[in-house]
Specification:
The complex is a heterotrimer. Chain A is an alpha+beta fold. Chain A folds into two domains: 48 residues, no CATH class; 318 residues, Cytochrome-c3 Hydrogenase, chain B. Chain A is built from 16 helices and eight strands. By secondary structure, chain B is mainly α. Chain B folds into two domains: 78 residues, no CATH class; 262 residues, no CATH class. In chain B, 70% of the residues lie in helices and 0% in strands. Chain B is built from 14 helices and no strands. In chain B, helix 1 packs across helix 11. Chain B is globular, with a radius of gyration of 21 Å. In chain C, the strands form two sheets. Chain C has a five-stranded mixed sheet with strand order 1-2-5-4-3, with helices on one face. Chain C starts with a helix and ends in a 6-residue tail after the last helix. Classes of the chains: A alpha+beta, B mainly alpha, C alpha/beta. Chains A and B meet through helix 5, helix 6, helix 8 and helix 15 of A and helix 6, helix 10 and helix 14 of B.
Amino acid sequence: MEQHIESHIIQSSDDEFIINVGPQHPSTHGVLHLQLKLDGEKIVDLRPFLGYIHRGIEKMSESLTYKQFIYLTSRMDYLSAHINNQACCLVIEKGLQTEVPERAKVIRTLMAELTRLASHQLWWGSTGLDMGAVSPFFYAFREREMILEIFEETCGSRLTMNYCVPGGVMNDIHPDFVRKVKQLIKQFRENIHEYDELLTGNPIFQSRTQGIGYLSKEDAIALSCSGPVARASGISCDVRKKNPYDAYDRVSFDEIIATEGDCFARYRVRLEEMKQSMNIIEQLIDNIPTGEYRTKIKGIIKLPVGEYYQRVETARGELGVYLVSDGSNKPYRIKFRTPNFSNLGALKPMSLGGKIGDLVAIMASLDLIIPDIDR
Amino acid sequence: MIHWIGQKLNDIFGPLWAPYVGYILVGLVIITLVVVMAVISIYLERKIAAFMQMRLGPMRVGKWGTLQAFADVFKLMLKESLTPAQADKQLFHIAPYLVLTVSFLAFAPIAFSPTLQLWDMNIGVLYITSISSVGVIGILMAGWSSNNKYSLLGAMRSGAQIVSYELSAGIAILTIVMMSGSLSVSGIIQSQADGWWIFKGHIPAIIAFVIFAIASTAELNRAPFDLAEAEQELTAGFHTEYSGMQFAMFFLAEYTNMFIVSMLGTTLFLGGWMPLHIANWETFNHLMDKIPPFLWFFGKVFISLFMIIWFRWTFPRLRIDQLLKLEWKYLLPIGMVNLVIGAIVTWLGWIF
Amino acid sequence: MSQPVEEAIKKIFPELTLTSWAQFPAIEISRDSLLSACEKLTTHPDLRFDMLVCLTAVDRTPRLEVLYHLRSTTHGHELIVKTELDESQLEIPSVVSFWKAAELFELEVYDMFGITFTGHSDLRRLFMPDDWDGYPLRKSYKASEVADNYLKSHQLLIN
């Protein structure tokens, strides 16, 4: 074992030295382990080591029924838990060829956008934190707390909601849901200028992020980046626009694209996405159709033999679910193409030649969720 | 009162030993004073930070959490001070004491009020600037001896940073020294009897004050210049490996230094214990004179402290190259030019 | 509007049969012609598959399928490329030179299925420990047995 590990350590010369960032480190937001080769403060080489939170979700899913495995996916990108569940439900519904009631579609979309909003707010707070500004974190959590309370009322839990089920949603929305969402949107619209005042307009923040962590459009394509990371490099890749699912085909919103490709562009894209999410929520909240919130699906789900695929846009990019069915009540093979895993590949080209401080800024702008990489 | 204490000591210990007992007593008083001030500033920092972040801050220990800092110190005292196995043990154990001692030493020439000054030496300001730069040796020792790359990086950053910013702080101080024509703390304060330097010295003094504020915040290793302990980059920088009371020493030293910098700034720019006077407002000036000098002094010190705390909880952190660029490309040249302007202003007697 | 990907594929790869995988058109390429096919897939003006969305494998004992999910950002069409491998010879050329994303994806497939990607510069176990026995996503993998053995050999088992 010793030998194995030896061979993995980056070789360094006398002028350079190696530090291990993680698996326990304040700015990796989880158990990501990076090995850095440094020349003074400059990053010469970087290597990610993964697996510290590998739970084998794909393997576990193979021995769970279709209704059970959905809930494992909440634990991949835990900040987009609902969207992960949604993707799995959509792929099962595709296999069963069930039509989901309109009401369920709208509720799912609303919940997905609220999830995205909460996720981006957490990202914004932790970006400030990574840059050494502690106060923004609390401003971000002020609104996030409201969203989590809305979730709690309707779904019973705050983070891993497990609200999606094949055929619709688990329960109907809470009677207070509409009122509280409207109140949230109103308050957030009033407060979002504080986000600009605290970070966006700050000269120190701008000098830390502008021109840092450049990712060209070609690189972003070659590295299969998705989500805000790719959109900040000028790639139009929003699944909600390109392959609308649930109620996204009936709302109008802009796909935010920037061309600079640096940390500041990624920051701005996410900030604008929050506003677009609010637009989507505002369009849907008054028009939740009446009717059933779930179609009846028989107790044991068996998908016909074949392959199924569904992609959704999580808060961090494109989540693809590849499902191979052998006709039994369990998936034969399931593969999650998670956005963070491919976005991780962009870390090295972005940070080579930068300082340690730049690495922190880049990691903040990539917004990696480690359980989503490891699965 | 002081004479009375001296008489008593003479009576009890005899003329040979009385001065030494006196020194020890003074030392104990200073240490108590420093610790009390540090505790107050820790409490202030936590409360101010909390209010800036829409929180309440410590609320449980004592009324409004006033005893929180004591509870923390008590916890740290009970905690084991760990030493890494591969550490350079001697240096590792000396470092925190060195840092703290240096902070205590810098208190000597500070004048809290006209009668309350421990040591009115004629080079007081020079003494403070030189003694406070010894602290960086303690930080370097801590970083090196921990045998941890994060600590070493933090210590190196801190060394580069403190040595650089000392220049700007020194030049800003020099501007005032030149205007007042004195290096002694009491001399500088006396020279502000007819107006504080920040008003009297107009443009050069204001520029010097801004430079001093930036450079001294950087010397304190506090945000936005807290690269030495940049939590998100280097976990905790040079004091990563310290725990228990040894960590508390660094912590205490940081807050003591905060006080020293505020006191120095107050002495140089804000008139020390001198009350605020406005020309031709006789009644107002008379009223201001009624407020005891040490209240004036501490009032100004707490305002400067608030500024430093405000900086920390508002700004993001700079990067190391930006930090050095700010010093060598902007602050230092501006400070130099400002020094020349100050010299001309003093020479022509354009001081109001 | 560019021509549908099916027609382009038929024209450029006349010898291959076009099938489908989920909602995407799919082609099956043998291991030996994979690199030359990738060359055509990335450079041909009608195809230009510049993004490797996903690389994964499916264990259909005794054969393993390696799936490449390709997307063209210029034309917007997508394609699944399938390569079948025999369990006795799990080797396939690496496609890192065409798509940089494959660097991480191939590591994952190697770790989970034991498929060796020849030409990959840094093939290592990405998620599992270096001395882990077996490849978890293979159908022949006995999870509890392997884990027990691992814990025993490292004296990590708590009784």
